[in-house]
Amino acid sequence: MIYLDNAATAIKREEVIKYILEHTKEFDGNPESTHAMGRNAKKILEDSRKKIADSIGANPKNVIFLSGATEANNTVINAFRNKEIITSAIEHDSILNSIGKENAILLKADKNGQISVGDLKSKVNEHTKLVAIMYVNNETGTIQPVKEVGDYLADKDIWFHIDAVQAYGHVDINVDELNCDSLAISGHKIGGLNGFGALFLRENIDSFMKGGEQEKNRRAGTSFVAGAYSMAASFPKMLAERDHIKKLKSYFIGRLKETNINFEINGDIEKSSAHILNIYFPDQKSDFLLTYLDMNGICVSAGSACRAGSFLPSHVISNMYDENRAEHSVRFSFGYQNTKEEINKVIEVLSNL
């Protein structure tokens, strides 16, 4: 099996999971309990918080743990439920499906896959209270001009939120340099356990999950200690793998160009993250291509995995180009486990068409 769908979820890191399984008693206690097992779990949780905060240039006290980036994004959107929000039409569904459409302004993306800061500036008005822009698009890998957006909003009474899920580990992140008020990241995208994420909050907002007093009253629910550890332990490994992943993407593009395969790259390759590559195949519809590749042991996708496994055309590619192009586009996303030998096999299978 060749797995090239790492943007959906990364392959779990066996060495991290092995450590958790071999030291289960360290993770068993509830970190809110005052006994020894609780204190042990609390130490792991707070050590992990420090490491995760450091990874985005944040103070640990401003980082809360939750179930993932979907909850993180929903938490921020919910705090501005009845306010005017500016976001983009190419955001993740956890943004697009949680905003109130009557209060939202959606920015379009150009054919490079980027929003226009000028367009954003023209849409900001006295009613705007939240701007939410992703750092790296989850379907094309395009890096958005979040630094420029943050600089523009810095002296305004407008909350700036960044969905940095696909940027985390692949692109350097510093919340102060980005001038953001909140930022969402997820553990399973870098090889950590599913069901865990973190939200940077420069200032507290209304809690989304109600219940106990965990996370200093900012997010109720028993802490997922193993999830926190797996994310913190995976990040430095992800940094060390950047160059390998970048070379794999370049190698894949080079091999494609050597064939007679008719293809075009969606978006600007020079302004994209190293792990995502979205390709338009004019001669093949994406639903057929996904099935064909799957039958040959190759796992890829046509868009976000959050669309319940459907073959609906990507809303991102449709926004950048049109629906026909979306119906002929496939996303390849690379991970630490992939090799050039696997890339050669994929090229061979595609060539056989």
- What's the N-to-C terminus distance? 19 Å
> Helical region count?
14
Please give the number of β-strands: 12
Overall spatial form: globular
Report mean pLDDT, rounded to a whole number. 95
> Which percent bin holds the helix content?
25-40%
Largest sheet: 7 strands, mixed
Q: How would you write the strand order of the largest sheet?
A: 2-8-7-6-5-3-4
Strand content: 5-15%
Order of helices and strands: EHHHEHEHEHEHEHEEHHEEHEHHEH
Category by helix and strand content: alpha/beta
Low-confidence stretches: none
Rg, rounded, reads 21 Å
Your description of this structure?
The chain has 353 residues and is an alpha/beta fold. It contains 14 helices and twelve strands. It has helices at residues 14-22, 24-28, 36-55, 69-79, 93-96, 117-123, 146-153, 175-178, 214-217, 225-258, 286-295, 315-320, 323-326, 340-351, and strands at 2-3, 63-66, 84-88, 104-107, 128-134, 159-163, 182-186, 197-201, 264-265, 276-280, 298-299, 329-333. The strands form three sheets. Strands 2-8-7-6-5-3-4 form a seven-stranded mixed β-sheet, with helices on both faces. Strands 9-10-12 form a three-stranded antiparallel β-sheet. It is globular and about 65 Å long.
Could you give a short description of this structure?
The chain has 353 residues and is an alpha/beta fold.
Question: Which features would summarize this protein structure in a list?
Answer:
single chain; 353 residues; alpha/beta; seven-stranded mixed β-sheet; three-stranded antiparallel β-sheet; 12 strands; 39% helix
Set down the secondary structure blueprint.
Layout (H helix, E strand, L loop, with lengths): L1 E2 L10 H9 L1 H5 L7 H20 L7 E4 L2 H11 L4 E5 L4 H4 L7 E4 L9 H7 L4 E7 L11 H8 L5 E5 L11 H4 L3 E5 L10 E5 L12 H4 L7 H34 L5 E2 L10 E5 L5 H10 L2 E2 L15 H6 L2 H4 L2 E5 L6 H12 L2
Parallel strand pairs: 1-11, 3-4, 3-5, 5-6, 6-7
Antiparallel strand pairs: 2-8, 7-8, 9-10, 10-12
